[in-house]
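Milestone M4 deliverable, item 7.
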Amino acid sequence: MTEWMADVLGDEFEQLTLELGDDEQGPVVATLVRALPPEQEWWDRVRGHRRLLEDVDVLYVHGWSDYFFQKRLARFWTARGARFFALDLRKYGRSLRDGQTPGYIADLTTYDEDIAAALAAMGHSAEGSGGGRRLVLLGHSTGGLTLSLWASRHPDAVDAVILNSPWLEFQVAPVRAAIAPMVEFQARIRPLDVAPQIDLGFYTRAQQEVADADDPVEVNPLWRPAQTMAVYAGWLHAILSGHKKVADGLSIAAPVCVLLSARSAPPTRWSEELTSVDSVLVVDDIARAALRLGSSVTVERIDGALHDVFLSRHDAREDAYRRLDRWVTGWRAVDGTPVTRSASRG
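Output delivered:
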C-alpha cells in the first residue's frame, strides 16, 4: 500500500492509492480520499465534551460518470467529529488509468474488492470489526445501489446507510423485466457493445445554472464529463441485475436514510424546470424501491433538488443539509451517544 499524499482537492484532503491487481486491461487501482476532523478546542476537551460523531467513520461512493469532489459534504461530517473517506472506484476519476474502459464493470460484486481495500485502510473490515468505531455508508446514484447491495450482504459491518438519490430502479421500471434477457444475452456475447442513450448535457447545465459563489464547487471535466460516459452492455446488465435484487427485497440491518428530489422531469429539451428537479431518475419509483431496502427506511423528499441533492440551488441544498443533520442527530440519540449540537456551518 502506498502512503497518504496530498489530494487534488487541496486543503485538508489526502489520497491513498489502493492496488487491486490486474484485469484484462492491466493494473487496477481504487483511490481513497480522506478528510480528518479538526482538532477539538482545548476547553471542550478539558470539560469532557464529545462531538456528535467523533467515533464515526464515513465511506462515500460516487455515482456513474462521476468521482468525489464535494468538499462541503466532507466538512459536514468532519465538523461533527467524524473521519470522512471517499472512494473513487476502479476506472473512475483518480483511479482511471490509460487504456481502461471508463467505469466499466460486469458485476457489481467486483466492487467488494474496492470496498474491502478501503475499509482495511480505514481500520474496518467487512466482518464488522472497526476498533469500536461506527461505519456510515454514504452513496450517490449508482454508488447508492452498490452500497445498498453491499450493506445487505454484510449486515454486521454497517451502522447506518445514507443514500443521495440512489439508482435503485431502472428509469422505465415497467420494461426492466422485458429488456433484461436481451441485455443479458448481449452482455454474454459482446459485453463492450455500446448501448444506445441520449444525453444532451442538460443535467450538467442545470448544476451550472444553480451554482453558488458562496459555496463553490470545482469539477474536473475529464473525470465528470458534461455528457455521460458511454454505457456498455456488460455494465448495463450488472445494473439491471442489481435493480432486480432491490425489487426482490434486500435485508439491510442498519437504519437507512434516502434523500430525493420531490419531482422528476425528462431532460428531452432545456427548460428552467430542469434546475429544480431530478432529470436523471424517476424519483417516485426510487422512493417506492427504497422501502424494499430493509426494515428501517426514512425517505426525505426535497423540493427543488437536483439529482445530487447537495449540488442543488441554495434553498434546496440547505434543506438537504438540514434534513441530513436532523437524521444523523436522531440516529446518534437513539444509538446512545450524548448529542452536542455543532455550531459550525454544515
